Amino acid sequence: MDTFIQLTVDALTLGSVYALIALGYTLVYGVLKLLNFAHGDVFMVGTFIGFGVLQLLGGPASPNVPVWALITIITVAAMGGCAILGVVIERFAYRPLRDAPRIAPLISALGVSFFLANSMQLLFGATPRTYNTFEIGNGELYFKGFDIGNVRVPLLRIITIGAAFALMVGLYVLVNKTRTGKAMRATSYDREAAAMMGIDIDKVITFTFILGSALAGAAGVMFALRVPTTVAIGFVAAARKPDGPPTRASAPTTPIARNAGTTRRSALALHGSATGTRRAIASAQRTPSGESCASTAATSPSEE
To answer: Would you say the C-alpha torsion 251, 36, 93, 172 has a positive or negative sign?
Structure first.
């Protein structure tokens, strides 16, 4: 039973990160019908933005602000930086090719991905960077938490799962309950008809990139708080191939699913947790069964 609880916590933690990345992918694809291959590298840039802000605030051993403010600031900074990066990518790499043959923006996306990865390696090198989360608040993020049976659930995992869930709920409300969300759904359904109805397509698409990139930035910080980050982590995250992804053909074909994409986004979020479950089980098979949840903080990105 303890092993099941530990694997469940591990799965929810890792699945939350995968779900945020997947939601950023599906937002852009839902509006533009474009596979944004640079999304994984935006996620990688978010990890480095968070690392840089952490150092500016005094480092993990002696931060200038309380722990809760530190995590909030580095997360917001990563989201903001990635949102700006998303706008730049959309403006210069995708917008000029919006009406070009489908292969043109696809090649452009691959080019942006390579450009971001190699630029970051040129600037910061290939050495892994770690947030040294255990030093923050003298291990507060690991020592605090609660117990479920004999399994300790650290505060860091609670923050990761809670923050991801809050972002998913916020995204659902924005897409389905606001005028901006309605414009996004209309653009996704029929871009030409939406433009004739007075919707500013350029603003909608730009906002979609802002939203998806900000989610990638938040996922980057949540990921790097637990494991070291490198310039290759964007490719690793983007190359995760689900075993049984929800497809358009398998999703319900109700008007809500077609227009709002709610079913697809919810399925992606759940599938992220399911993917996390499989990764956690695979990791557990390579580690002693009595290992605590906190012990997985030092695992490498390739193991997750």
So the answer is: positive
Q: Dihedrals φ, ψ of 178, to 5°? A: -120, 165
pLDDT value, residue 248: 39
DSSP classification of residue 287: S
Tokens of 54: 């952490």
247 alpha carbon, distance to own chain's centre: 20
Rg (alpha carbons) of the chain, rounded to whole number: 19
Phi-psi label, residue 217: left if phi above 0, alpha if psi -120 to 50, beta otherwise: alpha
Cβ-contact 207, 180 below 8 angstroms: yes
Residues 44, 24: Cα–Cα separation, whole Å: 14
**212 close to 19: Cβ distance less than 8 angstroms:** no
For the whole model, what pTM was predicted? Answer: 0.78
- What distance separates the 2 farthest-apart alpha carbons in the chain? 62
DSSP letters, 57-104, are: TTTTTS-SS-HHHHHHHHHHHHHHHHHHHHHHHIIIIIGGGTTS-THH
- pLDDT-derived band at 276, boundaries 50, 70, 90: low
58, two tokens: 């005094």
252-258 contacts, C-beta under 8 A, 24 or more apart: 258/189
Q: Which two tokens stand for residue 14?
A: 């890792």
For each of the domains in the chain, give its residue range(s) and CATH number, in order of start.
2-292 (1.10.3470)
